[in-house]
Amino acid sequence: MGVVRLGVCVSGVYAAFLLWAIAQERLSAPFPSTSFRPHTSPEHHSKGDKFPSPLFLNYAQAVASSLSALCYLLFNAWKNGNLHKGLREIIGYNQLFSIGKVKTIKGEEIEPNGKEKLINGNGSSVNHQKSVAKPWKKSLPALLLQVSLFQGLAGPIGFLALRHISYPTMVLGKSCKLIPVLLLNVLLYRRKFSPHKYLVVILVTIGISLFMLLAESGKKKKAGNDSAWGLWLLGINLFIDGLTNSTQDQIFSTCRSFSGQQMMFFMSFFTQLLLLPALILPIPSNPLSFISHLPSPISSTISSTPIIFAKPEILNSISFIITHPDCLLPILAYALLGGLGQLFIFETIQHFGSLTLVMVTVTRKLFTMLLSVVVFEHTLTKGQWIGVGVVFGGIGVEAAMKRREMIQRTKKDK
Fold first, then answer.
1. Is beta strand 125-127 parallel, antiparallel or unpaired with respect to 117-119?
2. pLDDT digits over 277-291, tens only?
3. What is the pTM of this model?
4. Which of 35, 221, 260, 278 could form a disulfide with 350 if both were Cys (CB 3.0 to 4.6 A apart)?
């Protein structure tokens, strides 16, 4: 059953985000306008304009993700005959604060869902527990808010890094995402992994890096495209990704009754709350203009600049959709496919952990390229084939260890 679930999750992630990437690419292209503007050339009018607000797209995807999670939870409750429990329990609202307790026995902490028994004088077992409030930073709402904030920060920082580094460098950096996820799980949450996990992470990272790096060997690249600032931003982006995935693992390890779709719902909801002020409030067109109005000596180094507030992002986006109706379908596809893909992502995290999820996402491009080799008869370099072999070697080690664990578990059950 676990193998079937993993296969469904992997197939869902690949299919949803392959189509999602197509919608994202379409949104980065210009859309023709239906309104006539006398100050624009006919050539520009025919080509159109690009969608003005990535923030609006992120918010639309967060809305679609929360609705997808809600529909899944309601359907699952209906299928299992649990609709009578009410919406609060179905979405996990009642767990936000009830799981913030730590039960103690004789002064020792145990897991929030743990059950301990003590033997009384007549030999019968009795439950003995005392609830102590967890610190706020370790509570479920705080952890959910953290991952929502991390997820909201990672995207803009990644886009900013891409302005200062080449796309191949960004893809190559993202292929090493397994390393920060593993390290932050160990350093922040003291999580232990089997020795073979470290070998698998190293093999997959090296293999994907070879595949991406040597793919550009036959192409001419301009030297000096990657600035130190861009590489620094890429490093921050990878660090935030590691924080996000390791914190998600921590939530599932401490709140075992909290499902992946419940986490998805609240993460998307918190993301909407975080993005909404930036979407509806006017933002200065030049944020650095504030610095020139600060007291000396900070403002003395910068010439005084008037603070001009731009039109709210949501108004710009709605106006663009009205005058460029062709963009509506790609926006809906981008949001809905992202929401559908998130369902498979959170299912993978809940049952297999973030390391498995990241392995799925970083190998997605490799399998896409292999599919293109078969379908469109593209060619790979010898170095890329070596990278493919190293990746499959890592996956083979993971599969062999999983099979060994299943055999040992079966023997114990017998």
1. antiparallel
2. 989 988 766 655 555
3. 0.72
4. 260
